[in-house]
Specification:
Length: about 775
């Protein structure tokens, strides 16, 4: 090839590229991620957007479009307000607009495009595809309406062939209405007035827009159902425009063997290395020694589906599948468990909101989206609960490849009910819309093996006809678990009883209802907050369920929660737990990462070690230094602030009073009070012996505190806790305090601070193996 030609092409294109760049820039004054610098009008989500049904030819329509915000009753605009970078929501910084739309207006889009010449041959049809548009959209091509759609989270397509002109540029116009929190439609966390746990809306096009050519008879969808027990994959293609002369082919690819499994199903004939069957049937293909997909080994088989007219291959799509089995069964102790491939695998995940400071609903790049998942996996999680939002198909594809289980929430909408309230009575229009969108979302996602749980309702948000909706969800997809409502208002249906406990994770006896064949899960816990200056949505008034001042204290609290969680897997028998949350979101600072993803807030090594223990056997706990429940133990104590270094081993505490643990008020729940303490603060110390054969590395605190307390071992801070407990709980000891312990005589010293309500402090040491 002549080397001058690419140079000339680049020279000719440069002015157009420069002009496009000049028409767009992110909205200033917003928190941005590191990936924002990679976004431009010529490089915006260029990845193929439909990984479960891939065709070779396609054209991406992301980039700069014209936009206008007009009153909803106004005529279509003749002049537009400016440029918007699709597919970023109009409210986002990366859209280049950063404006709200509201219930009283409509958002209009417009752009021109050209159809490649080879798409117009052989009777091909041209499909215009939208990944997602929030919420109600009408699409026109060359002033001709080609279709409309309701639903902010499911993909849709229109055949635009008959609206195209014979040559030259074509024009698309998209009309969007999104009432946000003023409507009944599923919307998740989007509200007109963001605050607390409610966030900025994402109006309009927020996933990739693209075109593809297809033959007149074409594959429009695949329903892929692997049968793990039998080692068979069943594929039911949906075909448009087929006749009796059309046949389907299927073969499966084992990437380990790097060759195709061409074993025929026995109902057709082998041709071109593929099983052939007539259109309108389900194709079955056996797979010898099928490898099972799991978080530890996320094995994916490749699929190819072809449509033949006689001997001519006229359409072909590539996909993939995985063999993994989901069930609920009782373990050897009679506890109902969520089983993966007939084994109990504890699921530990994050609550993942899927918001971005610069793109809102839309990640700035695919690499950014993948980064969240990679960090989640790296920090010791094997699951994600996708919270009241649906992601682009590529997000689930990354989960499939990384081995991350997904609990998929249905986005909430309409009104809320109270914790003990009756189900909503929705309007006919609201109920019909919810169920239409639920069916569309499940249909669009059901082929992704990483998705293991459908969650129709969260905490009473939009909850109605719970038993019927749970049954409908199971009917739509019998292969997955159904969590009828995550948290709050349980109706005794579905595969799980889901508790929300902040910070948790200890459930109250009242919360654990008789659950029969339903597994017990902790659908939300944690919510530990830390705002980090320079990385927050707002400079002040940030919010967390419990807030900390520094990374070390936050790490202590996180590791402590996981230490408490570990024995609860055995009794009362949690099958899963979900920590709130992956990242900060707007003013909510409960994330493992900051909102801009620049920082992981805690000590990564300690996080990973704590998470890893959850997947091991239940801990065996043995008392090393008893607490007040089993022995009358003398401590030295004072209510007056002592001199500095009061926690050191050499400190002279002879002037302090002597009293028996525990210290507090008798009405405080779960306590053994032997010495009354009614003041605001108390300092306590005692000396204890560790036998020479003590496995010091296995030691944990067994402690009951009400409220905030600092614990020292031989003068070294062992843990710092906030809030209160209602029972004795297992607490990990900081590594530096473990190193300070030695066989023989040691000192434990505690300061406890009272704020309101009950008060109590006591501690002992246990060995955890």
């Amino acid at each position: 090839m002549n080397k001058i030609i690419p140079f000339l092409l680049a020279a000719l294109l440069a002015p157009a590229v420069a002009s496009a760049q000049a028409d767009w820039k992110p909205v200033g004054g917003k928190l941005m991620t590191r990936w924002a610098k990679d976004v431009s009008p010529t490089n915006v989500h260029p990845e193929y957007p439909r990984p479960q049904m891939v065709r070779a030819k396609w054209q991406n329509l992301n980039g700069l479009w014209d936009y206008a915000i007009k009153p909803k009753d106004a005529q279509p605009p003749t002049a537009y307000d400016g440029k918007i970078l699709v597919p970023f929501p109009v409210e986002s910084a990366l859209s280049g607009v950063g404006k709200s739309v509201g219930e009283g207006n409509k958002l209009w889009y417009r752009r021109s495009f050209a159809v490649p010449a080879d798409w117009r041959t052989g009777g091909q049809r041209v499909l215009l595809n939208f990944g997602a548009v929030d919420w109600e959209s009408v699409v026109y091509v060359n002033e001709r309406k080609v279709g409309d759609h309701r639903g902010g989270y499911d993909p849709f397509s229109f055949d635009i062939t008959d609206a195209l002109t014979s040559d030259g540029e074509q024009r698309i116009v998209v009309e969007v209405r999104d009432p946000s929190s003023d409507g009944y439609q599923p919307r998740g966390k989007q509200v007109r007035d963001p605050k607390g746990i409610w966030y900025t809306p994402s109006t309009g096009i927020w996933q990739t827009v693209w075109m593809e050519p297809v033959p007149k008879a074409t594959i429009t969808a695949l329903d892929i159902v692997p049968d793990t027990d039998k080692g068979i994959v069943r594929v039911t293609p949906t075909i448009r425009g087929a006749t009796a002369g059309h046949k389907l082919s299927l073969f499966i690819v084992d990437p380990d063997r790097a060759k195709e499994n061409r074993k025929p199903s026995g109902t057709g004939q082998e041709a071109g290395g593929a099983v052939r069957q007539r259109v309108g049937t389900t194709i079955e293909l056996p797979v010898a020694d099928a490898k099972r997909w799991s978080p530890d080994r996320p094995f994916l088989y490749g699929l190819k589906v072809g449509l033949f007219d006689g001997e001519e291959l006229i359409d072909e799509v590539e996909s993939y599948c995985a063999f993994r089995k989901l069930s609920v069964a009782k373990d050897d102790k009679g506890i109902p468990r969520l089983m993966l491939n007939d084994k109990f695998v504890f699921q530990y995940g994050t609550l993942d909101q899927g918001f971005w400071p610069d793109g809102l609903y839309t990640a700035p790049t695919d690499a950014a989206m993948r980064y969240d998942l990679e960090v989640t996996k790296r920090l010791g999680f094997n699951m994600i609960r996708k919270h009241v939002k649906v992601e682009p198909a590529t997000w689930y594809h990354h989960c499939d490849k990384l081995g991350l289980l997904v609990w998929q929430d249905m986005p909430s909408g309409d009104a809320h009910i109270r914790r003990n309230g009756d189900d909503l009575v929705r309007s006919k229009e609201s109920a019909e819309n919810y169920e239409r969108e639920l069916k569309a979302i499940i249909a669009s996602l059901r082929n992704f093996p990483s998705i293991v749980m459908w969650v129709p309702f969260n905490e009473g948000w939009g909850q109605y006809d719970t038993a019927r909706i749970a049954e409908l969800t199971k009917k739509l997809d019998p292969s997955r678990w159904v969590n009828s409502t995550s948290g709050w208002v349980d109706r005794g249906v579905g595969n799980v009883l889901d508790l929300h406990i902040y910070p948790g994770p200890n459930p109250s006896k009242d919360a654990i209802k008789p659950r029969g064949t339903r597994a017990l899960v902790l659908g939300e816990f944690g919510g530990l907050g830390l705002p980090l200056k320079g990385h927050t949505w707002k400079d002040e008034k940030n919010w967390g369920y419990r807030s900390f001042d520094n990374s070390e204290a936050l790490t202590d609290a996180y590791v402590t929660l996981l230490a408490k969680l570990h024995p609860l897997i055995a009794d009362p028998g949690y099958s899963a737990a979900i920590y709130t949350q992956t990242t900060d979101v707007e003013i909510e600072v409960n994330g493992l990462m900051t909102y801009d993803r620049d920082l992981i807030k805690m000590d990564e090594g300690r996080m990973v070690a704590a998470a890893k223990r959850l997947f091991g056997p239940p801990p065996v706990i043995a008392t090393v230094v008893p607490d007040a429940r089993t022995a009358e133990i003398d401590w030295k104590f004072t209510f007056d602030k002592p001199a500095d270094a009061w926690q050191a081993t050499a400190f002279d505490d002879s002037a302090w009073k002597t009293g028996k643990a525990g210290f507090g008020t008798a009405m405080t729940p779960g306590t053994t009070v032997r010495t009354e303490w009614k003041g605001k603060e108390i300092w306590v110390r005692r000396t204890f012996d560790l036998p020479a054969d003590t496995a010091i590395g296995s030691l944990h605190l067994m402690m009951h505190h009400d409220e905030d307390a600092d614990v020292y071992l031989n003068g070294v801070l062992a843990t710092r806790v906030t809030g209160f407990t209602t029972e004795y709980s297992l607490l990990p000891i900081r590594p530096e305090a473990i190193k300070a312990l030695k066989p023989g005589q040691n000192v434990i010293a505690i300061q406890c601070r009272q704020t309101s309500g009950g008060q109590y402090i006591d501690a002992g040491l246990v060995s955890v193996r």
